[in-house]
Amino acid sequence: MLKRLPIGALLAVLASFALVTTATALTTGQLPGGTSISVDNTNPVDGDELLIPLGDTTLDVTDTGTAVVGGGTVVKDTSIVYIIDVSGSTGETAGVDCNGDASNDTILVCEQVGAVAANTAAADPLSVIANSAVVSFSDPATLELGLTTDFSAVAATINGLIAAGFTN
Description:
With about 170 residues, this protein is of the alpha+beta class. It has helices spanning about 5-20, 105-125, 150-160; strands at about 25-30, 35-45, 65-70, 80-85, 130-135, 140-150. The strands form 2 sheets. The protein has a 3-stranded antiparallel β-sheet, with no helix packed on it. A 3-stranded mixed β-sheet has the order 4-5-6, with helices on one face. Helix 2 (about 105-125) packs antiparallel against helix 3 (about 150-160). The longest helix is centred in the last third of the chain and has 17 residues, at about 105-125.
């Protein structure tokens, strides 16, 4: 003789079968710019089945493993161009201390501090930046330094800019 199950009991049984999942253990790839990324879950291991007990709505699972960003070979295939406004108005005060000398700096000095900080990060051996250039603009735009791998020359060029002219 067949027994009928209440619809709620039937749905609970079906839901318990649907909640079996497989954990993926190792994922590797590249971030934009070529930086490598790897995530390895060691617990639960690949293929573990996690069942939510009948009547429960959740199951706490502790996931352990490692994550590594930039642990692989760096692909230096990116160029960066610093484009800096040097029009006369950048010689005015920015109203803030950008370089840490306890006095208000000009807008240009704040631009230079930011660009040099970005250049320092680009010079890091783990950076994907291969080379850099500097362009300034006011009345005309001027190529101050073409693409180069000499990051110290880039910093010197940025720090040597002066405010003059009008914004084109």
